[in-house]
């Protein structure tokens, strides 16, 4: 940690600041500059001390040198975290594809989509039972019964399942039904939810907030890790920028950045990252080329009539299968394998 | 609602889209353009229909003409909402000042600060018992006992109180102690929390999310209003932009914009909006000049040692009193009155 | 300047970095941390050395402590710059209002508007002869003859004039006709234009780029100052953010920030900052309350038919006069005087 | 084009607006909604009419349905533009790699780098003779003599050359020496420069502005096309967002978006897009996977001592060659070929 004083602060004030620092059991090294004094603090980063120093008069800047998160950092855990769920390993050399509808709508719908995800070669079935919606008058998901429908479909077709949990009180019931719990972008800093997820062992896919920095994102993961749940994967899903043509701006550099700063697996979500079906396939390929450990992709048998309106970013089943076939070839060039059995899906060969 | 087709879509497809629209009991008006067809839909805005249309093939854009929120809109409620709590009216011609520390730290601290807020002429005591923090190792607030301390101090000094609630399960206890409940920026789209706040009548100060559009902000308010609680005030507290010198970019145009779109009171938070003490006073004045119904301002008796590190954006008590004296003169030029009794606070005249 | 090494870099590499630094005639102070070494560099900031260090292996961060601009900094020039043009002083205690159309359209139009600006109490006539437009098919301004029309109108009505210059080759002709030259937001980093403006003495109003940080903005001013022209004023005109309801997000904190970092006058442009007529008046008042040295405001006699389409953000003459009357009262509360003679303008009392 | 009236505007006003529209020789179709009237305008988009309508009282929104750019649009030119320069085709099925230093520093430097670019399999040599720099005290490029050095090196090693031009008056001399002229991000809306580039036939690589929307970017290209130069390629080089860990946020979705909206080739610049060497390779692969027609990549023989400080984002020659070898395998999976002769470059096998 480094403290930079204001321009032309008195020697007395510098001495007081140093004294304050040393009271906290850490050493202060002074470098006297032309206009400002720089005080290096030796010892572990102490966020509270940093905050106090930042607000002292005579202090212009407090610069963090070490990171505020620990368990999420690769400095503390050099090897990749590999999350093993049944026969799927996330974070290693396997490419993992999570596919399915935005929302679970009926037993028939989720069963048919599960069949198609499996046929195409995916390993995880996605689907929301609780939906976060901008306005109160939009469809909010079918709730707990949707969880059961999805669990049933996953089991029948040999797929893991992932679903979103929105509030601490639903964590236990969601964990009972699903293999992976998703924290949505609007809840990345819902700290009570994160704390609750730290108390279980179910793997969590944590989505990056609309406008979260990498540092904030990793600190959010730290909440779950610090609670005792090591099974966290990070999900880049696009950030909010001035560009409105796409729903969000998919920040693919986040993939290698997060893999460098952290040991946690990184999943990419091109469906929300672009909001446009015609961009999903190229952004899936780009994500894999960038080193993603997996993808979460919306696929729907009848996107024109999806209940959430996210059909516009959902692939048709034949597109989904075509994409996965392409990824099988691409993966080995990017240090991954994606060797699940895959079958072609013909257009129109599914039940709407 | 307007539907714009893709370039050169077939007449058959247009007919299908129109048929789909009419099945929903609304009328479609067709305008045939050179390359595209425009379909105007007459009738109330139906978000579900809009979502479905947006995802149909042959549809390029669906443009919302009317707004997706109703109860929050000035179209539906032309007069200003005035929230009356004891003798304070928020949203009318009175300027309301909420002052206090970032966090309640001890009974002595909050009592002394309450005394100073009252002396300076403020009407509401702010203070957090539950603190949302980026990282899990930072001070998280002192919890429920802080609520009691603040309620006690408010009562003793004749001030209303406002405090942040972070999770649905704490809404009831917070409402027991505080006059106004605050929803923080990270929770603007914590929909379960909003729904819970809709079930009570305690006034709510809803802070704008880091990167929330006006439309999303008003939709979040709509959740509370739709639940049955009409006592909502909106708070502009700075948005996230590329500029990092200030903690956030305070968007003061939000004040007249929100007052135009909605009937709800608008409060400004220059402390979080800038993150720098030396900018708070000018931004408070600018907020009042822009038409704000009130301000929420951090003030601390010992900002160098505040427990959250937000001291850097807290005014000293003498600065706070000086500001309020200036605002008393400024308010009448901006259509407000701010005629509470006010006394000068001398530097160093308070207990740390 | 501070150099922070990467995690666990070898002592040898640190020694090499230090040697490299000392070769440049500056001293290096080493603080050995737990994982990283911090090297403080004593001496003037050298941007080239910083750039070289930043790219050396073993270096994680190079932190600038002193600023990269000098002549624009208040550290080097503690007193406010006051630019005196005829009887107008910009940067002192006088509030300066620049009003007029987006574009000069005809001799009659600019003469009538000049009359109204003077009558309302403004000191400077604005108007563009060269217009930067997003697309090539939009009206591009009437060119050099517009300069002459505006100079004539300014002279007749006793107003200074300001106009935009877009390219180095037009600097001389614009300077011949106008009292102040404006650099538009798109040209803030048109360095050849800035260099050319550094070679003359005509005052320059430099608009902040769409997405320029304060540091970049002041560095752009530094180009003009370093060339030998000390007469620079800074103009906050809104930045680009995710919010699209307003044309830009007017960053009013920029006013006190820039006045703190620099000695140059700061002007606010609420017309471009909001893009909406109904927001201009409140944002003008807020700008003055925030401490602006002046305002540049669009006013038009026939905004429905303005040639650039910026009529939507132009005040009508009666609104403009009403605003200036309000500002006369507001200014003294904000440390300014605005005591020019002012007359009421009745709606419809002007020639379209 | 669609005009939406304000809430509850009178029938008389609607009639006036319609009359105004019809005076311009286009037809107006009226759809009467519950609160608002929607007027569809049939006929070519007229930006001036749109601007006038937008500023009329009673008008809430004017929505553009067709695009404001024409020559740049795929609607008007369905086939890909292929720019043929000697034996290189940009925009077709060939992947084109432009490599080289940020700045030309000496004849020996640029000659050695040209040798390495060719050896690795690149087709174009990049290098700046004129450098746009944030501050006036940074290295500004070596000027015209750098152009000659680069032309010489390109000729000797059989590479095309690309260099940045910053001001209209240097267009001719740059075009004399270089095969492709680059417009930098700060100059994307330097309209005089764009107009001048429209008068020649030399291919232009137009970089996206820091915060330019796709629409503004394509309108900037339209300036060059409208002037008569059809040889324009678009370059995504990262946009400015709230995230500061990377120099910019590389928006890879821009690649398929721009290729959909336009027929012009799209080049990606991961060096400026990330600002960090360790991210360049993965972002180059991701760009190709996203469908880029080419890459522009910084490579330097001695990045620790590059004169601009951009060494931190420059690849070493061996990394560059390794990347190109990988791209040769990747390209065919993405519909491209990259079959230039390639040789391995051993670490340390070059002259610094």
Automatic annotation (TrEMBL), chains A, B, C, D:
Keywords (A to Z) from UniProt: Transferase
Signal peptide residues on this chain, from the entry's feature table: none
Residue ranges occupied by any DAHP synthetase I/KDSA domain in the UniProt entry: 81-322
Keyword Transferase applies: yes
GO molecular function, one term: aldehyde-lyase activity
Coiled coil: none
Segments forming domain DAHP synthase ferredoxin-like: 1-67
Keyword Transferase: yes
Top-level class of the enzyme under EC nomenclature: transferase
GO biological process: aromatic amino acid family biosynthetic process
Gene3D superfamilies recorded: Aldolase class I, Phospho-2-dehydro-3-deoxyheptonate aldolase, domain 1
This enzyme's EC code(s): 2.5.1.54
Matching Pfam families: DAHP_snth_FXD (PF18152), DAHP_synth_1 (PF00793)
UniProt-recorded name of the protein: 3-deoxy-7-phosphoheptulonate synthase
């Amino acid at each position: 940690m480094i403290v930079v004083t204001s321009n032309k602060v008195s020697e007395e004030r510098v001495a007081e600041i140093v004294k304050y620092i040393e009271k906290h059991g850490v050493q202060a090294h002074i470098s006297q500059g032309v206009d400002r004094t720089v005080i290096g603090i030796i010892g572990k980063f102490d966020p509270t001390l940093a905050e106090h120093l930042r607000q002292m008069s005579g202090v212009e800047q407090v610069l963090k040198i070490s990171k505020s998160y620990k368990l999420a950092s690769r400095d503390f855990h050099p090897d990749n975290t590999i999350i093993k769920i049944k026969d799927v390993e996330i974070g290693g050399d396997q490419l993992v594809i999570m596919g399915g509808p935005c929302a679970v709508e009926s037993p028939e719908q989720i069963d048919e989509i599960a069949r198609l995800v499996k046929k195409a070669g995916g390993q995880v079935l996605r689907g929301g039972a609780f939906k976060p919606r901008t306005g109160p008058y939009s469809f909010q998901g079918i709730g707990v019964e949707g969880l059961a429908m999805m669990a049933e479909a996953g089991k029948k077709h040999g797929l893991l399942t992932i679903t979103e949990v929105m509030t601490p009180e639903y964590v236990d019931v969601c964990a009972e039904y699903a293999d992976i719990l998703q924290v949505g972008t609007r809840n990345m800093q819902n700290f009570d939810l994160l704390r609750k997820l730290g108390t279980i062992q179910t793997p969590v896919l944590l989505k990056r907030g609309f406008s979260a920095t990498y540092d904030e994102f990793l600190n959010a993961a730290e909440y779950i890790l610090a609670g005792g749940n090591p099974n966290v994967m990070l999900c880049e899903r696009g950030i909010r920028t001035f560009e409105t043509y796409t729903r969000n701006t998919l920040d693919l550099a986040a993939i290698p950045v997060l893999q460098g700063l952290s040991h946690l697996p990184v999943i990419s979500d091109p469906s929300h990252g672009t909001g446009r079906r015609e961009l999903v396939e190229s952004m899936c390929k780009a994500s894999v080329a960038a080193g993603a450990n997996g993808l979460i992709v919306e696929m729907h048998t009848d996107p024109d009539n999806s209940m959430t309106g996210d059909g516009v970013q959902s692939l048709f089943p034949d597109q989904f299968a075509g994409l996965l076939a392409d990824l099988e070839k691409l993966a080995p060039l990017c240090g991954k394998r994606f060797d699940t059995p895959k079958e072609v899906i013909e257009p129109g060969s599914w039940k709407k």
